[in-house]
Amino acid sequence: MEELLQNEYIIYLINTVAYLLNAFVLFLIGKVSYQLFHPKINVKNELVEKDNLAFAIAHAGYFTGILLAVGSAIIGPSHGLWQDLFDISTYGLMAIVLLNFSTIITDKILLRHFSVRKEIVDDRNAGTGVVEAANAIASGLVLMGAVTGENHTGMSGYVTALIFWAIGQAAVIFIAWVYNLITSYSIHKEIEKDNVAVGVGFAGAIIAIANLVRYALAGDFESWSVTFSDVGFEIVLGLILLPVVRFLTDKILLPGQKLTDELVNQEKANIGAGLIEAFTYIGGSVLITWCL
Fold first, then answer.
1. What is the pLDDT of residue 160?
2. Which of 174, 202, 216, 246 is the most buried (most CB within 10 A)?
3. Mean pLDDT of 201-225
4. Residue 130's CB: how many other CB atoms inside 10 A?
5. What's the rounded Cα separation, in Å, for the pair 157 and 186?
6. Is 221 helix (H, G, I), strand (E, B) or coil?
7. pLDDT greater than 90 at residue 241
8. Phi-psi region at 102: left, alpha or beta (left = phi > 0; alpha = psi -120 to 50)
9. Crossing angle of helices 271-291/224-248, nearest 10°?
10. 215 vs 85: CA distance, rounded Å
């Protein structure tokens, strides 16, 4: 009996090491892929020579997105070591490609009124870096939900993961549009002016809606109608969450002060207020998923 337990423990350790090595290889591939997708950016120069905080934030968000996507494949049900390694590798590679496309979406759609590359690389705009990081984390959360659970429809899990990622990106873009409507200022103009506080608050809204979409996608995939219904319900909750959270931030978390005044109507934007706003969005989304 003792020998059997020892053998099981050894197998457990071998599997753990194999999963870790596989993950590290994917991170290395993610690093190389980022450079391929962004040939005009010298990653080493930005991180080491220029000490570019904006780029470091965006890059950390990119790897966090990879971590979430790869982690979902690791923590899922095991189908044997070799099958697990294959699934982790293939879903990881897919996540890397999609996360790089997410950075393009941030540039062309989410922050389309200015050049994201210029703001991060040339101007070292940390607010833009935070938003790009948030969109990468959002993609990772959506892929995490997409990979979790079993697929009972016979459709390839890679196809559903790709479609779910697209749904998540559409949800983020929609929420970004709504977010700009409920604020009395232009988030694009403020972020372009290097307003980190506005970028942080906006990033919180992006991650919050992605977490709700992740929750809707998590679990076994039964049908498209059920999935779209669940995602739609969570997006509606997100639409309710945004104005409610801004009101609560004004009245409870920042008593005696207006959130907008702290973010844009003073000489130096209050990054702490932006952090509080981001926390309430993300915290609210987490509480919703816990209560449902």
1. 81
2. 202
3. 86
4. 28
5. 39
6. strand
7. no
8. alpha
9. 140
10. 25
Q: State the average pLDDT for the chain.
A: 86
Separation between Cα atoms, residue 261 and residue 160, nearest integer Å: 43
Q: pLDDT by residue (tens digit) across 268-282?
A: 999 999 998 999 899
Helix (H, G, I), strand (E, B) or coil at 151: strand
Nearest CA to 59 among 169, 123, 137? Answer: 137
For residues 274, 206, 135, 75, the Cα torsion angle rounded to the nearest 10 degrees is 110
| Helix, strand, coil distribution of the chain in percent, nearest 5 | 80, 0, 20
Q: Is 133 exposed, middle or buried (CB count within 10 Å of its CB: 0-12, 13-18, 19+)?
A: buried
Instruction: Give the DSSP H or E segment for 23.
Output: helix 2-37
Strand, coil or helix: 49: helix
**DSSP structure class, residue 149:** S
Whether pLDDT at 237 is above 80: yes
Q: How many helices (H) and strands (E) does the chain have?
A: 12, 0
Q: Please choose, from the candidates 47, 149, 42, 161, the residue with its C-alpha nearest in 3D space to the C-alpha of residue 93.
A: 161
Residue 185 CA to its chain's centroid (Å): 24
- CB-based contact 124:54 (threshold 8 Å): yes
Q: What is the pTM of this model?
A: 0.90
The DSSP result for 216-246, as a single string, is HH-S-B--HHHHHHHHHHHHHHHHHHHHHHH
- 59-73, 93-107, 213-227: the lowest-pLDDT one: 213-227
In whole angstroms, give the CA distance from residue 230 to residue 228.
5
